[in-house]
Amino acid sequence: MVLPQTSRLDRGLSRKQRLKSAKLLQETFEQNRRFAGRLMIMWLRNGTDASLRLGVVAGRSIGGAVQRNRAKRRLRELFRLHRHRLRGGCDVVLMARGKLGKASWDEARAELISLAARADILAGNESQERALPPKKIT
């Protein structure tokens, strides 16, 4: 399996590639384009400024602050590693569900890819999937 080489910069997730504004998050939820999985919910936002930016949400049902922050770091890392496989002029908001904390890395990765495919933002052939090792998340 041969995949195109990507530079280190292509794998980053800069501030410009994140949705931070409460207004943009609210706009995303109002558009009601969501795809639910067992571990996470993927929301899509269309707009003139949309460019595969990421927003991450973890509610109190996840647990305490430590568990919520760990879930958000995990979702950011998943998206960062697989952003190059996504296409489309939309922004993505990932909402953690309670089971994300106990799921394996492969389960979370598979669900992100599955949700992206259902949302029709997955580019390329699913058979060319490449498992990249995650950063250590503490």
Architecture overview:
This protein has 138 residues and is of the alpha+beta class. The chain is built from 3 helices and 4 strands; from the N terminus they run αβββαβα. A 4-stranded mixed sheet has the order 1-2-4-3, sandwiched between helices. The chain is globular, with a radius of gyration of 14 Å. About 4% of the residues have low confidence.
Radius of gyration: 14 Å
The total of helices stands at 3
Terminal Cα span: 32 Å
* Mean pLDDT over all positions: 84
Q: What structural class results from the helix and strand content?
A: alpha+beta
Largest sheet: 4 strands, mixed
Strand percentage lies at 15-25%
What's the count of strands?
A: 4
Shape: globular
Q: Helix content range of the residues, please? A: 25-40%
User: What is the element string, with H for helices and E for strands?
Assistant: HEEEHEH
Q: Can you list the strand order of the major beta sheet?
A: 1-2-4-3
Low-confidence stretches: 126-131
